[in-house]
Write a structure and sequence with these properties.
The complex is a heterodimer of chains A (340) and B (244). Chain A is built from 13 helices and 14 strands. With 340 residues, chain A is of the alpha/beta class. Chain A has a six-stranded mixed beta sheet with strand order 6-7-8-3-9-10, sandwiched between helices. In chain A, helix 4 crosses helix 5. Chain B has one domain. In chain B, helix 1 packs across helix 8 and helix 10 crosses helix 11. The chains are: A alpha/beta (340), B mainly alpha (244).
C-alpha cells in the first residue's frame, strides 16, 4: 500500500532523510520512533505529498506521490505535527471545509462529518471556536479531519502528544479500531505507545532506519530482556556467586537497596530464560525471596542504544529478534545502576 | 466542488468570523470620508464628481491592503495550517487563487460600500456616470494588483509584520514614482526610456488614467498581468518554500 524507495530529503547540507526504503501493507500499524530531528516528520510530510523528496520514490496505493500528488492525497488522511488548525473556525466549519475540499457534498458530507464527530467524540464542541478548545479537543479535531473521508491510508504525526492518559487511551483505541482495513503510519515519542497500538515498530535516527520489526522483537533487543531482578532477605551468603555458577548465567550484578537486602540483577547468556534454574537454586538453598522480577526488556534502553550509538549499533532493516548479546557487558555496573 | 471555490469560501468567511473585517470596513469608510470631506472639500468644490474620493484611494489602499494581505500566507506558515491546506487534494495554484480571490472580493465589498457616494452625487447633481463606473473599475483593479503583490510578499515570510512593512514600502515606492512631482524629477535625471518604463509600471499613473474615465484596454491589461505575475510568483514561492 505504501512503498518508499531510497527516499532522501536534504535541506541544504542537512540529510533529514537518507536513503529510506520501506514497504507497508494493509492492516499494518507502523510506528516511527526516534529522537527529535530523526526525520520522522519529514518522512511523513513526503508521504503525504507536502514536501517533495530530494531523491527516491513514494508510492501510495499505486499512485506516485510526486507525479500524482492529488490522487494520492485523496486517499490519505493526515494529522500534521502539532495538529495545526484554523483557530478562528469552529470544528463544524473546519470539517465542512475539509469535506468540501475532498469533494464530499450533500448527504455524503453530512454522513462523513457525523461519523468523524462520533468517533472522536466532538459532539459537544462543534460550534465553539477552535482557539477556545483545550489541547485534547484540538487534537481530536485534527484526528476527525484526518479520518473524515474514511481514507485507506492514515498518516498521524504524534497523534497523542499533549493528551492526558485517558485521552491517549481513547485515541489509541480509535486507531486500533480503524486499523483493520487500513494502513496506519504514526510517529511517537512514547515508547509504550508502540506496544499499545503498533503491529510494526521502526526506529529512525539521523534520517535512517535503525530498526524494523515487531514491538516484541524491539523489546527483546534490550540488554535487560530476560534478566532477573532478585531481592533476598535473611542469610544468603554467597548467593551471588552460586547463581553466577548456574549454566546460562552471564553475570550477576549487585544492586544497592535502601533496606539492606541482598539484591542483584542476573543477566542471562544469549538472553535465554533463567527463571527455572534460578528458582530451583533458591528452593534448594532455602533463601527467603522478597522480590523476584523477570525483566521483559526495556524499550527506552533499546531506544537509547539504537539512536545514540548510531555508528556501532547500526543494523538496517534487520528484523532478527536476537541481536548480539554483548550489550550487557559493554557498560560498567555503575553506569548500569544509574540508568536502571 | 472545485478547489479554488472551496478555498475561496473558507477564506472569505474567515474575514467575517473575526472583528478584522468590520474594523477594516469601518476604517475604510471613515478614512475615505475624512479624505473626501475634510481634505478635498467635497461640498465646497460644488462638483457632481467623485474625483475627490478616487484621488485618495491609492494612498488609502497603500495603508489598508498590506494589512489585509499580510496574513494570507504568513499566517498559514506561522501556524502550520499550510500543511493541512496543502495535503488536502487541492493544488497550490488553486489555494493561491482561492485565497487571493477571497481577499479581492473582500475589497470589492469595501468598494461596494462606496456606492452610497455614487448615489449621493447622483442625487445632488448630474455626474458623469461613465467616469465613476470606470473609476470604481480602476480602483478594484488597482486593489487587486496591490493584493496580489501583498500575497506574494506574505508567502516569503512567516512574520506578518515584516510582510506588512515590506509590502507597504515597496508599494509606496511604486506609487511615488508615478506621483507628478516625483515623476517630473525622475524625467529630468533618468534616461527617457527608463523613465517611461518606470512611469508605465506605476499603479498610480495607470489608475489616474482610468479614473479620468479613459478605460484603456492597456491599463486594464496592465493590472491584470501584474496580478497574474504576482500570483504566479506567489504559487512558485509557496511550492518551493512550503517546508521552510
Amino acid at each position: 500500500m505504501i512503498e518508499l524507495v531510497k527516499l532522501s530529503k536534504r535541506f541544504g547540507s542537512l540529510h533529514a532523510v537518507d536513503g529510506l526504503s520501506l514497504s507497508i501493507q494493509r492492516g499494518e500499524v507502523l510506528g516511527f520512533l526516534g529522537p527529535n530531528g530523526a526525520g520522522k516528520s519529514t518522512t511523513m510530510k513526503m508521504i503525504t505529498g507536502f514536501l517533495p523528496p530530494t531523491e527516491g520514490k513514494i508510492t501510495v496505493l499505486d499512485y506516485d506521490v510526486v507525479q500524482q500528488t492529488r490522487e494520492a492525497q485523496a486517499c490519505m488522511g493526515y494529522l500534521p505535527e502539532g495538529a495545526p488548525l484554523y483557530p478562528d473556525m469552529t470544528p463544524r466549519g473546519l470539517l465542512g471545509f475539509c469535506a468540501a475540499a475532498r469533494g464530499l457534498t450533500g448527504q455524503d458530507r453530512k454522513t462523513a462529518i457525523g461519523r468523524a464527530i462520533e468517533r472522536t467524540e466532538l459532539g459537544g464542541v462543534m460550534n465553539q471556536r477552535i482557539e477556545t478548545l483545550s489541547k485534547g479537543f484540538k487534537r481530536r479535531v485534527g484526528l476527525a479531519q484526518a479520518i473524515l473521508h474514511d481514507p485507506p491510508v492514515l498518516v498521524l504525526d504524534e497523534p497523542t502528544d499533549g493528551l492526558d492518559p485517558n485521552q491517549k487511551a481513547q485515541v489509541r483505541a480509535l486507531i486500533h479500531e480503524m486499523s483493520a482495513d487500513k494502513v496506519v503510519v504514526l510517529s511517537t515519542h512514547i515508547l509504550e505507545e508502540v506496544e499499545a497500538v503498533c503491529t510494526r515498530a521502526t526506529i529512525m535516527a539521523e534520517g535512517r532506519l535503525r530498526f524494523d520489526g515487531t514491538p516484541v522483537e524491539l523489546r527483546k533487543r534490550s540488554r535487560f530482556f530476560n534478566s532477573i531482578e532478585l531481592h533476598l532477605t535473611g542469610s544468603s551468603e554467597g548467593a551471588g556467586r552460586a547463581i553466577e555458577a548456574i549454566n546460562g548465567v552471564d553475570s550477576v550484578q549487585a544492586i544497592q537497596t535502601a533496606d539492606g537486602n541482598n539484591a542483584m540483577r542476573i543477566f542471562p547468556r544469549d538472553k535465554q530464560a533463567l527463571l527455572a534454574p534460578v528458582t530451583a537454586l533458591i528452593s534448594q538453598r532455602g533463601w527467603q525471596v522478597e522480590h523476584l522480577f523477570v525483566d521483559p526488556g526495556r524499550l527506552d534502553d533499546v531506544f537509547r542504544v539504537m539512536t545514540r550509538d548510531g555508528s556501532t549499533e547500526e543494523r538496517e532493516s534487520s528484523s532478527a529478534p536476537e541481536g548480539p548479546s554483548s550489550l550487557g557487558k559493554r557498560e560498567t555496573p555503575e553506569q548500569l545502576t544509574s540508568k536502571s | 466542488m472545485n478547489g479554488t471555490l472551496v478555498v475561496f469560501r473558507r477564506e472569505f468567511a474567515a474575514y467575517f468570523s473575526t472583528p478584522l473585517a468590520y474594523v477594516f470596513l469601518a476604517f475604510f469608510l471613515v478614512l475615505t470620508g475624512i479624505y473626501q470631506w475634510a481634505f478635498m472639500g467635497f461640498y465646497n468644490a460644488d462638483q457632481a464628481s467623485l474625483q475627490s474620493l478616487f484621488s485618495g484611494l491609492p494612498w488609502l489602499f497603500l495603508a489598508l491592503i498590506p494589512a489585509l494581505g499580510m496574513r494570507l500566507w504568513s499566517e498559514e506558515r506561522h501556524s502550520g495550517t499550510i500543511e493541512l491546506l496543502l495535503t488536502l487534494p487541492i493544488s497550490v495554484a488553486q489555494a493561491v487563487l482561492g485565497k487571493f480571490l477571497a481577499a479581492w472580493a473582500f475589497v470589492g465589498v469595501a468598494l461596494g460600500l462606496l456606492v452610497s457616494e455614487w448615489v449621493t452625487v447622483a442625487y445632488l447633481g448630474e455626474p458623469d456616470h461613465g467616469v465613476i463606473a470606470a473609476s470604481f473599475m480602476g480602483a478594484f483593479l488597482m486593489a487587486g494588483a496591490f493584493l496580489a503583490f501583498a500575497a506574494l510578499v506574505s508567502s516569503l515570510t512567516k512574520n506578518q509584520v515584516l510582510a506588512f512593512v515590506v509590502t507597504l514600502v515597496l508599494l509606496l515606492v511604486n506609487l511615488t514614482v508615478g506621483f507628478p512631482g516625483v515623476a517630473d524629477w525622475l524625467g529630468a535625471v533618468l534616461p527617457s526610456t527608463l523613465h517611461q518604463a518606470i512611469k508605465d509600471s506605476s499603479f498610480l499613473v495607470r489608475f489616474d488614467a482610468i479614473s479620468r474615465g479613459v478605460l484603456d484596454l492597456r491599463d486594464v491589461l496592465f493590472f491584470l498581468s501584474a496580478m497574474a505575475l504576482c500570483l504566479f510568483a506567489n504559487a512558485t514561492v509557496v511550492d518551493l518554500r512550503k517546508g521552510a
